[in-house]
Design brief:
Chain lengths: 83, 272
């Protein structure tokens, strides 16, 4: 069965986020009442797994082994069947 | 081991830099040094023919995902047995700049309990933000554990250049003090950023150029054979690489970077 796992990796609070800060500054210049901008990366992974539970477990493993560094990153995973 | 028998492997991949300078620095001191693409080592399975492994600076794999992580995971997928043996036998590994990031992402540094499955630290965005390319002063704080610096007296101030945008060493916030205590207790802190008089930067820019925790510029593992640092010793090897060479009447032939390369060579030649 094919699954689509969305892994969103974002910075933990307190970590430097220059892209978000620059974007926020410009949005303010453009006249928007913006307080802050957080930037995160989304990896959409199409993978084979026997069940959705196992697909999620694989995505979790990928996050730990490659996509997120536990010192500075949080990650969130959503998995759905690939149509 | 005889000087001429020592073989150094400088491992490169797309995006690495200063590999030639690193190779030349070792060759200058009389040992054999080669720059090899990681795929050559994977194909030939000959990493263990070398006594020293070096990960040079740069932006391996375009810094995709995170600086150093793709190279680190590529190695763990393709050369894990050789790296494991290399480490277990206590052979020296040096990581410069991006090489330091690779060692941290691989789990080889800090390596408080040996090689960790997941990274125990990060080298993240500089604070203040931005790519910093400048000379810095470093205080040697190691008391003899690190094989790459144990010829340098404790407390000596050296200068080398940095060139990075992500060199801020951080540990998980909740474990910061615990990890610092372990680093200090095991003599794993090697270089700290300081001013030219040797006063520790205390987090203040520009002496600490990246906001690194505890002003750390370089650390070694608990056995002292794996060493990573953000500054570039290979860019501080010769007198003509120094920033003030045109203003001086006379300069020493070598810069402070030589101390790193000489230390490891001296340690290896001492071994029978």
């Amino acid at each position: 069965m094919k699954y689509r796992a969305k892994i969103e990796v974002s910075l933990k609070p307190g970590h430097s986020n220059p892209e978000g800060e620059t974007t926020a500054r410009l949005l303010k210049e453009l006249g928007y009442k913006v307080e802050a901008v957080d930037v995160s990366k989304v990896y959409t992974v199409i993978l084979d797994a026997p069940t959705i539970k196992e697909a999620k477990a694989k995505a979790e493993e990928m996050s730990k082994r490659l996509l997120a560094n536990p010192t500075k990153d949080n990650y969130m995973i959503t998995v759905e069947e690939q149509k | 081991m005889k000087l001429e028998e020592i073989k150094v492997c400088v491992m490169r991949v797309g995006g690495t830099n200063c590999d030639s300078e690193t190779q030349r620095a070792f060759q200058e001191l009389g040992v054999q040094a080669e720059t090899l693409h990681v795929n050559e080592l994977i194909k030939r399975r000959n990493l263990l023919d070398y006594q020293v492994l070096v990960f040079p600076g740069g932006f391996s794999f375009g810094d995709y995902v995170r600086s150093g992580v793709i190279f680190a995971r590529w190695l763990s997928a393709k050369l894990d047995k050789e790296i494991e043996t290399f480490v277990d036998e206590g052979r020296p590994i040096l990581g410069i700049c991006n090489g330091f990031q690779i060692l941290v992402e691989y789990g080889l540094l800090p390596g408080l309990e040996g090689v960790s499955t997941y990274p125990e630290a990060t080298l993240t965005t500089n604070e203040p933000q931005g790519f910093k390319c400048q000379w810095v002063y470093l205080k040697h704080e190691n008391k003899g554990k690190c094989a790459f610096t144990n010829k340098i007296p404790a407390g000596k101030v050296v200068r080398m250049p940095i060139a990075h945008g992500e060199g801020r060493l951080l540990f998980p916030k909740e474990k910061e003090q615990e990890m610092l205590a372990k680093l200090n207790n095991n003599d794993m802190v090697v270089f700290r950023y300081c001013d030219k008089n040797g006063n520790i930067a205390d987090g203040k820019y520009p002496a600490n150029p990246n906001g690194s925790f505890y002003d750390i510029a370089g650390i070694c593992n608990r056995d002292g054979n794996i060493f990573g640092l953000m500054p570039h010793p290979e860019r501080a090897m010769y007198w003509w690489q120094q920033p003030d060479w045109t203003r001086q009447q006379q300069m020493l032939q070598y810069g402070d970077g030589k101390l790193i390369f000489q230390s490891i060579i001296d340690n290896l030649t001492k071994k029978c």
